[in-house]
């Protein structure tokens, strides 16, 4: 396991549409382990493979309420509904936060690291926000894309621990 460098804007890998994982082989298991180490080290509540320079559809999330990281391979949004305003940050945009609108209810499907099909439902919590945030990453989208102006970014001092 290893702590990998986190890519930050304007690294072009963050803007690619990541490729689906064809098979969960040992290289994917290693990637997931390295992503978990990297997220814990940052620290952050989520990480997508493009943030460590790997353009594959793999995300991990670990909110303070979770006992272990949630790893999703080839995750897809099944359904969203409602809206709420959240205060969001990103490890790839270090030192900043901004308020954006996210969905209230989020349902996602994908594969666990063991290749098991799962469906995750989240509502009005950090998990719901992180699911949308990390799936945005594998589609080349960064939360700052939702801002009307860069002036809406707030400088943090020091860097908070709830970045994704
Ligand atoms: Ni992020």
Ligand list: nickel (II) ion
Number of structural domains: 1
Q: Identify the overall geometry.
A: globular
CATH class: Alpha Beta
The helix-strand sequence is HEEEEEEEHE
- For the termini, the CA-CA separation is 20 Å
Q: Structural class of the secondary structure composition?
A: alpha+beta
Task: Characterise this structure.
It is a single chain. This protein has a five-stranded antiparallel beta sheet, sandwiched between helices. A three-stranded antiparallel beta sheet has the order 4-5-8. It is an alpha+beta fold and 164 residues long. It is globular and about 45 Å long. The protein has a single domain (12-155), classed as Alpha-Beta Complex (Peptide Deformylase), CATH 3.90.45. The two termini are 20 Å apart. The chain is 18% helix and 29% strand. The protein binds nickel (II) ion. Nickel (II) ion is lined by residues 90-92, 133, 137, 164. Residues 90-92, 133, 137, 164 line the site of nickel (II) ion (NI).
List the main descriptive attributes of the protein structure presented here.
164 residues, alpha+beta, three-stranded antiparallel beta sheet, 8 strands, 18% helix, globular, binds nickel (II) ion
């Amino acid at each position: 396991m290893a702590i990998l460098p986190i890519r930050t804007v304007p690294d072009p890998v963050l803007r690619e549409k990541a490729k689906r994982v064809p098979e969960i082989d040992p290289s994917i298991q290693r990637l997931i382990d390295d992503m978990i180490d990297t997220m814990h080290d940052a620290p952050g509540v989520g990480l997508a493979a493009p943030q460590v320079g790997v353009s594959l559809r793999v995300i991990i999330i670990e909110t303070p309420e979770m006992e272990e990281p949630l790893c999703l391979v080839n995750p897809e949004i099944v359904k969203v509904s409602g809206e709420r305003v959240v205060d969001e940050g990103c490890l790839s945009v270090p030192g900043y936060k901004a308020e954006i609108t996210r969905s209230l209810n989020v349902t996602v499907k994908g594969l666990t690291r063991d290749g098991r099909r799962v469906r995750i439902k989240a509502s009005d919590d950090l998990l719901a926000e992180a699911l949308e945030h990390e799936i945005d990453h594998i589609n080349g989208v960064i939360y700052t894309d939702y801002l009307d102006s860069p002036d809406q970014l707030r400088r943090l001092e020091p860097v908070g621990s709830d970045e994704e």
